[in-house]
Amino acid sequence: MSKSFKGYVPIEAPSFTLESPDGQRTLVVACKSMVPGSTFLDFLSKTTSENASGIATAVWDLFHAAVREDAWTEFRAFIDLPENGIGIELLSEIGGYLAELYAQRPTVPSPA
Fold first, then answer.
1. pLDDT > 90? residue 78
2. What CATH number corresponds to the domain at position 85?
């Protein structure tokens, strides 16, 4: 006996906004419309451990998979500026948000 599974494609690509503490600088980060499910399995397996290095790697891997290539340099520059106040806690929160967002997004079946 065999079972067939059909993939799904997202209805729209997500984005998120970063804002500096003083509200003077904002950045809308464009994300890819699809991130492979395997990326999230890796993310979940690495973030449930007590290994800080594994957690950091998981968050970076998720960002690399989710943020569009044309938005990566600006994203990285924004989070690297100390004045923008993007700390490890916020990066972890964004990583969790992205994982949840991609897991629960409305999708439609892939074309045949």
1. yes
2. 3.30.2220
